[in-house]
Amino acid sequence: MEPVRLRAMLARTPGLAAGHLLDCLSDRSAAAGLLPADLPMRLLRRPLPARARAWLLEPDNRLIDSDLRWIEANDVRILISVDPDFPQGPALLAAAPATLYVAGNARCLGAAALAVVGSRQASAAGRDTAHRWAQDLAGAGVGIIAGFGDGIDVAAHAGALAAPGHPIGVCATGLDRIYPTRQAGLAARIRSAGCLVSQFAPGTALLRHHFPLRNRLIGALGAGTLVVEAAAGCGSLRIARQTRLLGKPVFAVPGSIRDPLARGCNQLIREGAMLVQESCEILRELGIHNINQAVARQVTAACKPGSGPSPLDNKSEMLLDAAGFEPVDIDVLAFRTGWSGHDVAAMLLLLELQGRIAPGPGGRYCRLS
Q1: What is the pTM for the complete model shown?
Q2: Nearest-angstrom CA–CA distance, 139 and 135
Q3: CA dihedral defined by 358, 307, 315, 351, rounded to 10 degrees?
Q4: Are 227 and 264 contacting, i.e. CB atoms less than 8 angstroms apart?
Q5: How high is the mean pLDDT of the chain?
Q6: Contact yes or no for 255/267 (Cβ under 8 A)
């Protein structure tokens, strides 16, 4: 069987895991990423899930032909778990997917990278943090890994693209079906600058059980995971705990005890995640600050005392103090300061233009710095 066709057949084999392939190959073949032509027969001689065995006995050749046409037309690669350039994080897991579809620059998967995850209903401050930190880290040469959910995912990808860096988008569908569809433009930009990754074959629609599989892949691909905002019980916490099980560091941005979006991060910190307040702390902890020394020095310098935003006048400082770091509306600010709603609104506009505060849903404002 031709190598390209063999890859397409393996990629379509349901339930096939990296451990199944490793059991069938010699150490030399595995190290070189060589796939013997009789690999399907070798697999059939070993324990396999029933659906994998049924497929290998009678593969759908028309479906494989269709996949091959799509792969060639869209310049997509199928990486096998024994390939030298298969990302090492998933390769270390026997239960990891045996194959990955990659669109874009597959070499991005071999570089140092960080998963950035968080709430889909992120606050303005959370989105700002994810964007700025992803931009800092990507500029220092760190790949940014995220899904395509609204909120933190999109902000992290946007920050990486602004660096410019090499973002890695992980899909819960086939690469021909970006979910949500409104992120198709973002996916195209990520493919141009970095790559898109999926363990699901082309044409695969979104199913609920795909999200845990995608989340596990996100946690496995990175050298660590950063959680920016997370409510209690959300999927981001599961990615973080999966990361910890792999022996990789978890970073969490702390928040107010009264903020529901901070409860997950605060819980992770209680469980042993590293509390981070600046992106340079992540660079230092991962030991990858020398990838792009010029940018890394700039990021590290930004952490030094006195390197923050320019000072404000006393009245603006008082308004920021009154706002705190939780969403608040104009009426509450007027009550806390004793100023008129008109004066508060005018000052909020100036602070918004300076990037110190951002409007949110329900007419509330959130402090950014």
Answers
A1: 0.82
A2: 6
A3: -20
A4: yes
A5: 88
A6: no
Same domain? For 138 and 219 the reply is: yes
Question: CA 369, CA 131: separation in Å to the nearest integer?
Answer: 14
DSSP secondary structure, 78-124, as one string: EEETTSTTS-HHHHT-TTSBSEEEEEE-GGGGGS-EEEEE--TT--H
Task: Please name the residues in contact with 219: beta carbons below 8 A apart, sequence gap of 6 or more.
Answer: 115, 225, 239, 240, 242, 243, 246, 248
| Residue 159 covered by a domain | yes
H or E, element range at 320: helix 314-323
Q: What is the DSSP string of 186-224?
A: HHHHHHHHSEEEESS-TTPPP-TTHHHHHHHHHHHHSSS
Give the end of a domain, one of 39, 60, 77.
77
Number of domains in the chain: 3
Q: Which of 56, 77, 98 is the last residue of a domain?
A: 77
Do the beta carbons of residue 241 and residue 231 sit within 8 Å? no
* Cβ atoms of residues 327 and 366 within 8 Å: yes
Q: Please list, residue by residue across 268-280, b when 16 or more beta carbons sit within 10 angstroms of its beta carbon and e when fewer do.
A: bbeeebeebebbb
Separation of alpha carbons 99 and 174, rounded Å: 13
φ, ψ (nearest 5 deg) of residue 66: -65, -45
Residue ranges making up the domain that contains 329: 314-367
Question: Residue 149 corresponds to which amino acid?
Answer: G
Give the chain's length: 369
User: Half-sphere exposure (CA, 13 Å, Cβ side) for 13?
Assistant: 28
3-state secondary structure of 174: coil
Rounded Cα distance between 134 and 309, Å, is 19
Segment 54-107, tens digit of pLDDT: 999 999 999 999 999 999 999 999 999 888 888 877 766 777 899 999 999 999
Q: Are 14 and 50 in contact (CB under 8 A)?
A: no
Interhelix angle 293-302/279-286, nearest 10 degrees: 130
Cα torsion 179, 157, 17, 175: sign? positive
